[in-house]
Write a structure and sequence with these properties.
The longest helix has 18 residues. By secondary structure, the chain is α/β, with parallel strands linked by helices. Helix 5 packs parallel to helix 6. It folds into 3 domains: 136 residues, 2-Layer Sandwich (Nucleotidyltransferase, domain 5), CATH 3.30.420.40; 55 residues; 91 residues, ATPase, nucleotide binding domain (Nucleotidyltransferase, domain 5), CATH 3.30.420.40. The two termini are 17 Å apart. The strands form 3 sheets. It has a 6-stranded mixed beta sheet, sandwiched between helices. Strands 11-10-9-12-13 form a 5-stranded mixed beta sheet. The protein has a 3-stranded antiparallel beta sheet with strand order 5-7-6.
């Protein structure tokens, strides 16, 4: 019996569900399915648990009718809009439980309307001198996690991972052979949100996320992020490689972001380094919309 399992990556935004299935056969991983289905109504932060499950189920049913999945293991990404992402300084002397409480307290100050006890909070350490440290703190309301678990149970699926869409989309980038000194810039665009991440030694050292009303609002976010890099002592000239992934990344938008950053940002294709089943070659999602599948593909490839 193979140590590897077929794995399905699901990524949902406020308006659609994307599916990427990675299968293992004859000692090789390959893409079996790439598809998406738009919801019959939007999912938003105020959507009730039962409503979220129903919307996901209707979209998943349509995907299944077109091509039934072969595996049972599934991992899911949530869009940036569902997360609170902040950088918080802390003292190294704090024990884990105190550190967790401190992060939740900071979130309650930054977002006074939230009940932080309802949130699952994780953090990524950032090295910052010898006295103190800071961390990228990421929080998500546990009711969305419960809804996804119930959705998987209803469909007899085994839930493996749940992650942030931008973090998941970096999966293949982190498998590249890069120097510990290299700094990577990763930009992720969703329907109403843009996030910017800097990675050094394959670990985030900067991560921020902002909403926007229309696509023109992405450029001020990029400009603000570049200013933040410079203030922290990281110039754009020190960035080794830069990538962009996500939704609706037109040539015009890419050019404007490149000009704002002063960098040759590459539109990332998550399918470049994995074999595809022959029937996918004529699939428009595979050929023309590959960039938008970076999150679903990244979370599906976490088994490799």
């Amino acid at each position: 019996m193979s140590l590897y399992q077929n794995h399905i990556g699901l990524s949902f935004s406020c308006s659609k569900l994307q599916l990427v299935e990675v299968n293992y056969n004859e000692n090789s991983f390959y893409l079996e399915n790439v598809d998406e289905e738009y919801f019959n109504e939007f999912i938003n932060l105020d959507s009730k648990e039962t409503q979220v499950i129903s919307i996901l189920q209707n979209a998943f049913n349509e995907l299944q009718l077109r091509k039934p999945i072969k595996g049972k293991a599934v991992s899911i990404t949530l869009p940036n809009e569902f997360f609170k992402i902040v950088e918080i300084p802390y003292e190294k002397t704090l024990i884990p439980n105190d550190l967790k409480d401190m992060f939740k307290w900071n979130l309650s100050i930054l977002y006074p309307d939230l009940n932080t006890d309802d949130f699952v909070v994780q953090h990524i350490d950032i090295k910052n001198g010898n006295v103190g440290s800071s961390a990228i703190v990421i929080g998500v309301n546990r009711r969305y996690l419960k809804a996804l678990h119930k959705f998987c149970v209803r469909n007899n699926l085994v839930l493996k991972y749940i992650d942030n869409a931008h973090i998941a989309s970096n999966a293949y980038l982190l498998k590249e052979k890069i120097s510990a000194k290299d700094i990577l810039l990763s930009i992720y665009v969703s329907e109403k949100n843009l996030s910017v991440m800097l990675l050094k030694d394959k670990k985030p050292i900067y991560f921020t996320s902002y909403g926007f009303d229309n696509i023109a609002g992405t450029i001020p976010i990029i400009s603000k992020s570049v200013s933040a890099f410079n203030k922290s002592g990281i110039s754009t000239s020190s960035i080794t490689s830069s990538f962009i992934a996500g939704e609706n990344i037109s040539d015009t938008l890419l050019k404007q972001i490149q000009e704002t950053c002063g960098l040759p940002i590459v539109r990332f294709n998550p399918f470049n380094k994995i074999k595809a089943a022959p029937h996918l070659i004529e699939n428009d999602n595979y050929s023309y919309k590959n960039n938008s599948y970076s999150a679903a593909t990244g979370i599906a490839l976490r088994i490799i």
